[in-house]
Amino acid sequence: MARSRTTLESEFEELGEQAGRGEAQEPHPGQASAKRKGKSERGSASGSPRRTLLVGLIVAFFLVVFIAAVALAYQVDTFLATDPRFALQADVHGAAGAVGAPIEIAGLQHASRDEVLRVFADDVGLSLYLMPLQARREALKGIDWVEDAAVSRIWPNRLRVAIRERTPVAVAAFSGKDRTAPLVTRLADASGALMHMPVQASIDLPVVFGLEPSQSREACRKQVELLLQLQREVEPLNARFSELHVGDPRNLRGTLVMDGRSLTLILGDRNFLARVRSFITNYEVVVKEEPGANLFDMRLDDRILAMREGLSGA
């Protein structure tokens, strides 16, 4: 059925109004972006002062805590360093180093108690808090009999000192400054350290010649290691050397006492067990052939060279 002109115009007008309403509802992309940007800027502008204030408060809080901690540490440090209750007192409790005294000392047998106490002479009257314990430990190790030491604080005002002394393995004999004077004797431990002879001590160790106080600790240690190696190797033979000469490490010499005679063996620097066993096995034959011999060169494994000479030890 044909529609009239008036009806068609009315329908076109309605379609135009609907299109206009649709365009109004869908803004241009550029316009939407601009609106969002405006909102973001307004939100950022309003949030930035709050964020800055919050960060400032956090920084201020931690700064106050840090300053308070530093102040507290300073006060504690000053209190421990200056309060007289923490000062090491002079020994007024009887025997120096005894239990209950300001400085208790344990482990002493041959080392001098007075030498140990002198290490702490400058600490009397000062706070234990200020005492450099490692420095005092090193000073104690400088005493000839002291191999190691431990120093600990007993709060509020006492010290405990534990000493580990050296173990001697030989008696070192050497000439003093005056060559005409009697030999000077010291005790030697496995590290090559030389210690003064203790008063009224019973020492049953071999006498060693060739160690000198003027030589380095390392050189002395190597010589002592050589004589200890000899003692370990010949232990199954129950052979005991009364004297050893380590002045020339390549030609170790030792003195055995057999049938009441002092017999010196030149042993070199190796094969000690085989060489000493060879001498003991062939001793009677060798002495019968060379009755006046007292020096035997054992460095040749297939023979024994017998001579007459003494081990002077000089």
How would you describe the overall organization of this protein?
This protein has helices at 5-25, 29-82, 113-118, 133-141, 217-234, 272-289; strands at residues 103-106, 146-154, 158-165, 168-174, 184-189, 194-195, 207-209, 241-245, 252-258, 261-268, 295-297, 305-307. The chain is an alpha/beta fold. Among the domains are: 103-165, membrane protein fhac (Ubiquitin-like (UB roll)), CATH 3.10.20; 168-307, Cell division protein FtsQ/DivIB (Rossmann fold, 3-Layer(aba) Sandwich). It has a 9-stranded mixed beta sheet with strand order 6-5-4-7-8-9-10-11-12, with helices on one face. The protein has a 3-stranded mixed beta sheet with strand order 1-3-2. Strand 2 and strand 3 (158-165) form a beta hairpin. Helix 5 (217-234) crosses helix 6 (272-289).
Q: What secondary-structure arrangement, pairings included, does this model have?
A:
Layout: H1 5-25, H2 29-82, E1 103-106, H3 113-118, H4 133-141, E2 146-154, E3 158-165, E4 168-174, E5 184-189, E6 194-195, E7 207-209, H5 217-234, E8 241-245, E9 252-258, E10 261-268, H6 272-289, E11 295-297, E12 305-307
Parallel strand pairs: 1-3, 4-7, 7-8, 10-11
Antiparallel strand pairs: 2-3, 4-5, 5-6, 8-9, 9-10, 11-12
Helix pairs in contact: 5-6
